[in-house]
Amino acid sequence: MKSILKSLPKNEKVALAFSGGLDTRTAVAWMTENGVEVYCYTADLAQPDEDNVEEIPKIASLYGAKKAILIDCKEEIAQEGVIAIQCGAFHITSGGLKYYNTTPIGRAVTTKAIIQQMKKDNVKIFGDGSTYRGNDIQRFFRYAKLFYPEIQIYKPWLDPAFVNQFGGRKEMAEYLEKIGKPYKSSVEKAYSTDSNLLGATHEAKDLEYLDRSLKIVEPIMGVPFWKMQIDPEIIEVEFRNGKPYSINGKVYPSMYQLMKYANQIAGRHGLGICDMIENRVIEAKSRGIYEAPGMALLHIVYERLLQVYWNENTLDLYYTLGRKLGRLLYEGRWYDLETVAIKEALLKISSMISGKVTIELEKGNNYIILNTEAEKGNYNPEALSMEKTHSSFTEEDRIGQLEVQNLSIANNRNLLELLNLLK
Prior knowledge:
- There is one protein chain.
- This protein is an alpha/beta fold.
- The chain folds into three domains: 4-73 and 103-178, 3-Layer(aba) Sandwich (Rossmann fold); 192-374, Argininosuccinate synthetase, chain A, domain 2, CATH 3.90.1260; 380-423, no CATH class.
- The protein has 13 helices and 17 strands.
- The protein has helices spanning 22-33, 56-62, 74-87, 102-121, 136-147, 160-165, 169-178, 255-267, 293-309, 312-330, 337-350, 395-404, 406-418; strands at 4-5, 13-17, 37-44, 67-72, 93-94, 97-98, 125-127, 152-154, 192-196, 199-203, 233-240, 243-247, 250-251, 274-279, 285-291, 355-361, 367-374.
- The chain has a six-stranded parallel beta sheet, sandwiched between helices. Strands 13-12-11-16-17 form a five-stranded antiparallel beta sheet, with helices on one face. A four-stranded antiparallel beta sheet has the order 9-10-15-14.
- Helix 1 (22-33) links the parallel strand 2 (13-17) and strand 3 (37-44).
- Helix 3 (74-87) crosses helix 4 (102-121), helix 4 (102-121) crosses helix 5 (136-147) and helix 8 (255-267) crosses helix 9 (293-309).
- It is elongated and about 85 Å long.
């Protein structure tokens, strides 16, 4: 049995990841008109660009869905975001800033939740609105097949009949107008946006051109720090056993609530906004403007504590494996065996991290660390002090350590001279 259906499976039940946008509204109406029972599932990821996510299933029903459900994923995405921080699962970085893989995490959480609901509803065909040029088509496919092996995939944008009828937004809007269900969009932006609790991605349209800066973006999770005055603010963040525990002394009842507050604090300074060029899963390059205020704040604090606890070799494993894990997450492999192995290793040693960091947030990605308190870290200000203090080794010990390195130096010199590289 083929996994991917190239034409509409008429008289079947088909699940659709429903966002409420023009494309998924069109897909629901068109599929229903052509004899498909459409089950629409919407993940509540605390999307900051949705005023009322509870209304989205009602929209799906209006456009013909046989069943429409809102699935609460807020705590799940918060927990997965923290795991990504603990493992440093971020591979796209430039100039000291990072893309926090917020969309890939969202796709993993969304697909897993939808598949669980599909099994309850006995729906065995899954679809979404992703196109063949992007990353999401692979992410949705891999997660769906991983958790539901017998599932089949139907994607409207892979169906020639759908593509030929609806070449773009104009044709879709005209179709909905024709069937008496017009789509009234907000003011057209110069870019597209996808968001969840952890962050927002702005890309496409004008942002595809590198002579357009991030200044054309209106942030939805923070402030445009480049055109306003922002007063500094001092924040204290505490981690316990590798996880965020409190902000400014307040303990939150859930990781979702903590992440939501972290977004509010860091967002009002414009922290976590960055401009990146990435390599998609098909190796084509794309450009995005990203927001992730809460993730950025928690990541800064966590890595500060790592430096207090872990030695150089452990930090090297964290950075190396974390970058590898970030790419796997990006490719839709967050639950694969190799990612499980990496996460297990890094989460095990992350559990020792407990402490507080006081940080002064300024404007944009500018901040100052004011204080670091670790419960059982390895940092000892007297161990290497330039002042006269008790030390675990003497100057004579250091002379011996240096003399031993003569063998390594001599071996290197001989090889470099053979290659005529020692000049």
